[in-house]
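Summary for the funding panel

The consortium committed to producing paired sequence-structure records for every protein in the target list. Below we show the first two records in order, beginning with the earlier of the two.
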Amino acid sequence: MNISDLKGKKITVMGLGLHGGGAGAVRFLSLSGAKVTVTDIKSKEELKPSLEKLEDLKDITYVLGQHRTEDFSKADMILKNPAASWMDKYVKLAMDNNVPVEMDSSLFFKLCENPIIGVTGTKGKTTTATLIYEILKSAGKDAIKVGIGQASVLDKLEDLKKDTVVVFELSSWRLSALGRSKLSPRVAVVTNIYPDHLNYYKSMEEYANDKKNIFLYQARGDVCVINADNEIVRGFEKEIKPKPVKFSKNKISNGNSVYLENGSIYFNDGVDERKVVDEKDIKLRGEHNLENVMAAVGAAWAAGVELGAIKKAVLKFEGVAHRLEVVRELDGVKYVNDSAATMPEAAISGLNSFSEPVVIIAGGSDKNLNMDEFAKTLAEKAQVIVFLKGAATDKIILAMKKADPSLVDKEFAVADSMEKAVELARREAKEGDVVLLSPGAASFGLFLNEFDRGDKFKEAVKSLK
């Protein structure tokens, strides 16, 4: 498929949304000559920020506050928002009428002729993908990041040159679309798999199956980088066609691998074992970030980068926003934004990254995840806990009281805004402490998304006097 094939096509964009991706897709399709209809169950008033971004575009039909059957049954293509289920009645109507349903990921793959390094996992996707991108740039390669944060996907196609390497962060939703089109990236990276999004998926197996699409349609000459320490990912190995590149916190002697030994990261190309970097020189905090670095090293090697260039980029890399991001130090207290920790395992990793006493801001909305281990870790390691209001918070508090009878009558601090949470945390923090936002839960309800939650934390912290 070429971009020119979109010209004159009747394309329905299902879900404009407020995060930027929908507006970016509409702009790309319109400028490519497609006849675009935008449909969203949200009202014009609710979608005002996105609509303002598209005011300069003409000949776009908007159907807001509803969906019409004809926009799905009589279109040439549907571009589906990730939030819409494949079982949605309008999506099924389109497919029943042989109208192809795409997402931005599948359409990008079909229109992109450049090599793609795809990164997925429950934790560590963004850090790993960003580090791969930085390594490629450091090695003098032309590279672009796609699918990271709230940036639009399809308009990145216009930035591609003949030798551009694409680094694409792939969520389970975006991978579901690739699976339906039987597409996988040339280099696939799986950082780890843990229970997540079980408010969307019926089971853990269904979630893991979408993740598998990152490698299921690879050719034997492709590369798949996998976490040998993660039980679920190890179970994928028999389904991977290429010989995998494994990474581990323990030495791997056979095959292509990246591993940790005696405080250093090594790379084994199947013949020689060479040291890449010493752990103490890595600027990223936390054991989980060592896994992200090892995953990026394996992917960069697969992309043809020399170890010297890999080391240079790793030593410079300081991380990404909303992931153990140091915001400020005030009165001897360090404030750290880890809002991207939207699941309990991620928050546990964040909390375990500090030897200093931690005042943690945790909790929020529920994704139908088990909070028992997080509750136990909070009780054992957090000096003080300030909760954000939400169903996940209720689960965590219940689990803490169930595990420790001495907490049964304890009243926990629960804030209904980030400003209040930061105010309560500051009141409790002493010199030498860390105030850590690491929720271990979803953000919806009080915030637009985890990025909005992190931004509001940063705003509140920076306003402290």
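The next record, for a separate protein in the list, is shown here:
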Amino acid sequence: MVVLREHKLVEKFQVGPAVRTITTLPLTFLDLPLAGPIYVRRQFFYHFPHSTLHFCETILPCLKTSLSQTLQHFFPLAGNLLCPPPPHKPFIHCTGDDFVTLTIIESEADFKNLSSNRPKSLKDLDHLVPKLTCSNTHHDTFIFPLVALQATVFPNHGLCIAITYCHVMDDSCCSHFMKSWSSICRSGGVDFTLVEKSTPCFDREVLKDPKGLEAIFLRDYFEERSTWKVGKTSEVSNGNSEDYVKATIVFGREDVEGLRRWVLNQWKRSKEFNTPQYISKFVVTCAFVWASLVKTRCRNDEEEDVKEEFFRFAADCRDRLEHPVPKTYFGNCLTLCYAMLKREDLKGESGFVNAVKVIERAVADMKSELFKDAENWRESFTKMFVLGSTLIVTGSPKFTVYETDFGFGRPTKVEMAHSFKGMSLAETGDNEGGLEIGLVCTSTEYEYLISLIEQGLQISKS
């Protein structure tokens, strides 16, 4: 029996910056908690009714040239993160031989399904993202390539351009890079207006450490480093045989407004003194999904209802610090926040309202004290994973990922590949003010979750 390969390697390229930069870039105190084998993966799906040959002859040359031109401005991305043994700090090393790997794949998979909001196999999505693998020198220095790119052609149907990157930069930086690359590519490699007007800022002096956190984060980093393994890849599925699927749930503007009105009315009925007048789209939607997800996953675990559930998210600090950081700052400029509830308080009738209250409180705490309890971040997050269940938010509608146009139109779908502990956020592709929320769960969980969400939306409109 002949087994046809669904994914075929067409070619693999090593693309370097158009102009080489030889330097080192230190990590800041906000990079340290995210340094190492922590990866982010994003996929951009485009309508592309052409053959692989057409892509290679007409699109690929400009895609490579514009990538090289973009890397000239984002030169650290072609380098490597070097993590020497203690007491040395990690840093980004840029040499004259740096490059980013761009892999071209031809796929016979179902483009329409993979680029839809419907549940699709996590393993199928994993084939569309490039892999990053760390290595180690004989001096016990870990080496992490920062970025890998992949273009997957679905002949006569579509195209997927995917990025995997090491978390030496945050999502804001990634969005800046992808929009710069796509803008240059869209112009045929002649218009550099976008990147020249928003040149990446590599100045580490703009980021101050007001609480002296670097020493604490460096200690935590060295402890975490001792657990790393050589060869660990950026794959999501890791061979898990369980039928995990990734699906997107779309909340339109009216859905969000209905949930907001309903939860505010419920909050006011409780006659609490501190009832807010307004709740953000982020808080109300995330609280609704968090409560629904816990009710779904724990519907048969009544014996563990006292277990703690955690909701973890990050907030951009660029315009919140005493000394504002440029919007184009390259690196991580995030504070890490979380909310916690007992499982029984999320599963009950007031689960949605309870979730809104604790997430709203976490946001308010962040605004009043940006790095509250930051000295205990590692201890707190370790506890979350050991003693409770954690849902981690990635992405944001603020990044406007659907504006990433390489010259063949806006993406028909933007995905993030992550584990079942993740929840990805993006603006809706129709640009109508809604939210896309991506979740990973089993097929059975998905059916139950959707019924819960539809029921909750219906109640909010009554």
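Regarding this second record: The mean pLDDT is 93. The CA atoms of residues 32 and 69 lie 29 Å apart.
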